[in-house]
Description:
The complex is a heterodimer.
Chain A: E1 2-13, E2 16-27, E3 31-35, H1 42-49, E4 57-62, E5 65-66, E6 75-78, H2 90-100, H3 105-118, H4 134-146, E7 152-156, H5 164-179, E8 183-188, E9 200-205, E10 208-214, H6 215-222, E11 226-232, H7 235-241, E12 246-254, E13 257-264, H8 270-277, E14 282-288, H9 293-305
Parallel strand pairs in A: 3-8, 3-9, 6-7, 7-8
Antiparallel strand pairs in A: 1-2, 1-4, 4-5, 9-10, 11-13, 11-14, 12-13
Helix pairs in contact in A: 2-3, 2-4
Chain B: H1 3-16, H2 19-45, E1 50-56, E2 71-76, H3 80-88, E3 94-99, E4 108-113, H4 120-138, H5 142-151, E5 154-158, H6 167-201, H7 203-208, H8 213-267, H9 272-296, H10 301-329, H11 337-352, H12 354-359, H13 364-371, H14 376-383, H15 391-419, H16 429-435
Amino acid sequence: MNLVEIQNLSKSYSGHRALDHLDLNIPEGSVFGLLGPNGAGKTTLIRIMNRIIIQDEGRVLWKGSEIVPSHTDLIGYMPEERGLYKKMQIGEQAIYLAQLKGMSRRDAIQKLKFWFRKFELETWWKKKVEDLSKGMQQKIQFIVTIIHGPKLLILDEPFSGFDPINANLVRDEMLELNKNGTTIILSTHRMESVEALCSHIALINKSKKILDGTVREIRNNNKSNIFEISYTGEVDSFRSALPSAYQILESKSEEELTRMRIQFLDHHQPNDLLKLVLPIVQVRSLHEVIPSMEDIFISKVNAVEL
Amino acid sequence: MSKVPLIIRREYLTRVRKKSFIIMTIVGPLLMGLLFIIPIMLSQVSDKTSKILVLDHTGIYKNKFQQNNNVEFYYDDLNIDSAKKKLKTEEYFSILVIDQQPGTTIPSIVIYHGDAQPSLPVLMGIQNTIQHELETAAGCDEQLLGKIKNNLNVVTRRTGGEETSSGVATGIGYAAGFLIYFFIFLYGAQVMRGVIEEKTNRIVEVIISSVKPFQLMMGKIIGIALVGLTQFVLWIILTSIIFSATTIFFSQKASTKTTQAITVQAKTPSDELGQNSVSADDLSNLDMRSSIIASISSLPLSTITICFVIYFLGGYLLYSALFAAIGSAVDSEADTQQFMLPVTIPLILSMIVSSSIILKPNGPIAFWFSMFPLTSPVTMMIRLPFGGVPIWQIALSISLLILGFLGTTWFASKVYRTGILMYGKKASWRELFRWLKY
């Protein structure tokens, strides 16, 4: 079941096309990575989903029906540009933002007390934002994003600006929410940071989608039959034992141990390689080299540009 | 729509709780109070007596005007020209000419003066004396009494002949026009600053993911309007407290003087007449202050009040929408100049032409300025106290103001919803108009 479906979405700003007939399905319960370089159109897409701006063309569906302004109460959005009222007390401010998302004042206070305690902010309730450290401001930003229990959480560059401790804290809370059924969209241009978190991924470049699917699918589809083997023994006799269907891409020796990256050009399996080399060297390990999202991304973007 | 009250509430409370608001609330009435106190003090301190030459061609008012420390009246039958010569030699401060008007018992009253205009209390005293005489003569004729109230007017002219101003009408007109001007600038700028604050804080994106940009903009405009109204109501209350306190203070002073006079009188009975005149002086000073209030009531007061509220709010809403649009288009207050100027020019212009409007409250300049929505709030308020503005003109002007308000709000909301998301770009006017299409 898709929580959000994006169909044929286009948006232009005075000549510049930010989104070009984009289709995207965001499955319910997924952690969806929206990846792409700066200026690819991610923020535009997110703003359209939040009804902050209106598309020129196409539709956004929420559980199969056209999205309407009241759906924004079901969405929690943390923009890339973080912001709070500097001169307002943080407690009052958090209540206000929660109320804008449709919570009653009493519910908001109750929930906020819980989260403030969890994030060790209770004593700061009456302080102004400008008196807080950056890290505390970020915690508050996260709390006000999730306070109304959104069905969909959209985080734009979620870890930028967070120190490692807070980044971990936020990541754990995020995964906890996901476990309890919240669908999460993470938008970022730093692929390594979300690879481990996401179940689904879409790559956007120059206002177009160039790739999407589950992380496993994408990586499996993009692997190129490369294996890494490490062994101790004669390097030369190892090399000479391999027929031409095995291409050695890389070789590194450290004291006794040699590591090699080998591409299988035919439909060979790892066992076939093992059969060849077991009599010659002592094999320590053998594993498939699965490309990182970053590698895939760079190769895809380059492919499009070529 | 239930979210707009939340926004209004926040905008209102955060501003009302500020120290600067509380300070302004206290300092404002003190300044206004000084405006009242200083003239009264000056009139008490001043030892220079204005001599006014009365040319009464009706023959009714001879020796009717009350004298005091400040004013002395002299009566003569000279023609105007030779009287004017006496004015030039500075023997007299001004000349009061009372002429019979054909077809009515209400006389025309013109005061010719040199460089200095007669003060408001003096004018009030004169108008009140004449009104009192007329009303006594009219007896119970309700129709005539009404006519007297509405048509009796003191005109002041420079000796050159040009009309200068006419007392209370000018005062009220200027005060109302200036209040609107002041309110628009003070609170319109607050709207602008609020928008800039949200934009530079980057909180705006969080908020418009919950409410529509238009709701945020209107919530802010209405919230700040309520702040302004609160401040004004507090000012009025505090000012009237100060005003009545000073009145009591001065009347007490006057009565102590009277007692002194009586004691002196007891000692030297021969000086009786002189002593009596002292106490009469102080009482007539009080009379003049209360006479201001009396002649205010002779103006088309209900029309003025209703129109003031309409133009006050209409003008504010019209301009603050534009100020919100400007705020959304810039990144800091320093960048607002290029947009501020074209928006504020009509407002400043309407203050500049106000002096010529007072001379001809129903002339063509007054008419057109009071129709154009960007100038009508100030101009119409200056016109109204003089009376004679036809109902259709008021209705047309208000309709145009409402249309203007809808127009600027539409324009502003388009610019606003695009502008608040444009970080780090300096927009031009051309770009602003392009945003209308987004």
